[in-house]
Batch of 4 targets.
Target 1
Amino acid sequence: MAVQEARGGTGPDGAHEGGCTCGGCPHGAREGHRRAVAAFLRRRDEFAAGQGLPPAVAHSASASRQWVSEQLTQRAEAVAERGREEGEAWLARLWLRTLCVVWGAVAALLLAEALTAIGAGWTGARTAALLAALVVAGALTAGCLLHRARGGALAPVIGEDNRMSTSRSVAACWVLFVLYAVLMLAARLAAASGHAERDALISGLGLARGAGAVTVLAVVCGIAVLVRRVVGLRIVSQRLQKVPAHRPRAADLLTDDSGRGAFADIQYVAISAVALLFAAVRLARRPDRLPDLPWGLGVIVLISAATYLAGKYAEGGRPAVLSVVRAREPGDLDGPIRTGDDIEIRGTGFVPPGAQSADRLSRMVVRIGAVDVHVPLVPVAGGFRNPTDTVLTVPVPAEVEPGSVEVQVVTAAGVATNRCVVQVTE
């Protein structure tokens, strides 16, 4: 009973609550994460208002700041752990939702064919379309069962940063569509009885008829592979900062790592979706051949893909320290930087996209000479005053030797900035 109370206990209906971390209990993980976030935000706002400080540190601004930062860091780590548990539970049940969507689409196709067959009659093309849908759905079902812990059939489109990959998702949609079209033609070819009908179906697979769709398929698949290579090389060369997400979201297809809408991603998804819908309509109208995607629409998709790739090349950038000055409180006298003083580091790119949470901010380090100083978290109502993307404030510890000292920032993504030399006096 004590263990159950420590984990959050159970509700009157036997369902696990808040802190439950039992395997196969996604509701407990989700509720536990929600409560941990609410408790952290409440405590952060209390500290921002000057409440909850122990008397032993309340008399010293630096001591109270350090104590508050340590308390928030510990609580942020607990929130991050709850977030990881919630993300794992979400992925563990995603495969079942994917199965429902896949077989719901098969049922919708069957219903649409049944309704459109009224008056026109059931044809071999309708049977072939249904059989092809069953084969594709069966393959996706097998993928869901094999990758239950990693999102089921969506596992191949989840990137290494635990986000939905736009390029992989677009390529996967085109691959599934072309696979469906070929399977439907294969089913019709197997059922064809006359030589003329078989020859017509084989000619429908000719490159002259499906050149547009095949070209688009090749380009989007190439873009998916190339983007992965580009992102990997830019991370290794420290020109791009990547922070893993707690779990993938559908919004990742249209946003950058920080959650803001990205033009390159939005236009690529939108144009690809329109082209795919057009190809599906063409296949429905002419089920005896690959969809003849017009070259005008194909070129639009190619331009969209090139824009998306250029956006991947342009995003990001290495963080940089521009200057380091002595932080001055109102009423203080001007003077040189001494040990024990606060320094203000001005620059850009200190907070990588997606690293705005407290557990990520607490990982930031300023290297002053040979001493690593963790950046203190300074809360304000609704957020943090320190650190920010352009300004960091840290104390100069007593272990720093007077003289010329190099200052360097290491971000939450592990990327180190350039070095800036400052003079520290005794």
Target 2
Amino acid sequence: MNEAHPHHHGGSDEPGPAHDPAQGHDDQGPSRRSVLWTAGAAGAGLGLGALTTGSAAAATPSGVPGAAAGAATGAAAAPAAKGKTMIGVPFEGRSTVRVGIIGLGNRGGSMIDLFLAVPGVRVVALCDPVKEKTAKAAKKVTDAGQPAPAVYTKGEHDFENLCKRGDIDFVYAATPWDWHFDMARTAMLNGKHVGVECPIALRLDQLWELVDLSERTRRHCMQLENCCYGRNEMRVLRMAHAGLFGDLLHGAGAYNHDLRGLMFDPDYYEGPWRRLWHTRLRGDLYPNHGFGPVANYMDVNRGDRAVRISSFGTPALGLAAYRKEHMPAGDPSWKESYIESDRTISLVQTAKGRVIRLEHDVSTPHPYSRINSLGGTKGVFEDYPERIYLEPDQSNDEWGDFAKYAEWDHWLWKEHANPPGGHGGMDYMLVFRLMQCMRMGLVPDFDVYDAATWTAPVPLSDLSIKAKGAPQEIPDFTRGLWKKARPGMDSEKPEA
């Protein structure tokens, strides 16, 4: 039910733009492909621990993660707040949400269909240095009966001009990971709410800066494509909150998706930016899909907190083996040395003592799985395939039928039984609900603190692997406010 379409998987699958002003200038600058290759070469073989934080980290290329913001020592120390919390802060209500989209490749080029399908949403501006992709997306807008959008195609930094517009309420960024932090930062500094594909940033200092900027600018900054709006995920969430699993004890989530063919496809990942990350970092490059749903089940940042992570990685053999079998001599990939573990396994412990297992594997053969498991004192659910064992419904040591619990479906899935789009419809649910919250002036279901928490395993898993599995502290991005229960993804249907 929740299988991701092979061509609409994991965040920011598309090539997208990057940053610098001037809508009218003609200088295309270096091509995006060359920028990505340069960044990849600069980071190749450079572990995060080889770099420093602070001013030195800021001086490194945006594509190189930097020192994960502070190794094990002091990593969890919260900087002084620069503004009031964004917890519980509603959007400003509006009849129409005006959207600007940055990045129109594989992901952005498909997500635009969902924005256009939601009532009360207008796509007013598009940005991608590849003009053909922008033109194709612009045609979708006019075909949907909306006015022709403004387009920004003049180089890597033209997205800054999109963010400066006065007629945009929400910026959506779907670009290679190197650019996510800069785009989120630029959008908020220009007064826009922003949603970014996974991961939202790559270093802990960047995550803190996004938290601080959200608080200072009073703009929401959100992690999109978080897999929290899947039908199974939302059903399990409601069942957990109703106590059907008893006291929660453990959960698991993953991004296990064989991407070898796509990562070696010169036309799929432009650059090829995603494969190059396997030359630059060891760790869980993509924790959000698995971490987000389980964090919701356990009310992380809403009564519990993720406090530490220990990570272990296998040898890096899969991509080299695939290259040997499939890539001709002389292909640029033969210059690459892969260091990213084929499978990374992490254990996260919460303040209440619960344990969350995270996995990441995109370079070995296996069926797609996000694992999506939750266990408590009354039973357990496991996905891929979906199955459940709950007392007193089951008592014979055999899995039960999860379909029999359809009464626990979230109201979104009861209203939209067959939603369009990828990831089994969850992408549409996310866009619909987010745009609904913006139109109606509601508090969003997830916020910048969730985005930072779900992304923190990227740098921290790398540090833990380098430290032979030693636990790394996960910062408290809420600055103590996690102790207070509050609403989240398990929302009530709003009054019309």
Target 3
Amino acid sequence: MSNTPTGEIYRIDWLPGTDVLHGTCHCGREHTAQDPIEMWEWMLAHPQGHEVATDD
């Protein structure tokens, strides 16, 4: 892992009174999850997983 700053900001907030985490990726996309591992995997998989869900 490099120590070079990327300028990318990832933010995860805990929604008080719930078990829900709300994440905002550096690209502006948002995601909610109860599992912190799921949240970090979503963020670090950028740009995969950032597509808008569609109903098939």
Target 4
Amino acid sequence: MVDTSRGDAPTSPAEEPRGCLFALSQPPLMIFLTVVGGLLLMAALHDLFLL
């Protein structure tokens, strides 16, 4: 069998840079954004229909 290793340790997936889509996939952040969006929606509807 031919040895194809180059002597360098392969980079693990944990060391890869993570972007914005990874951050948005986190449940606590999505819950926070949903609550804030809901409050903004309620305030907008209050302004539109009750004032």
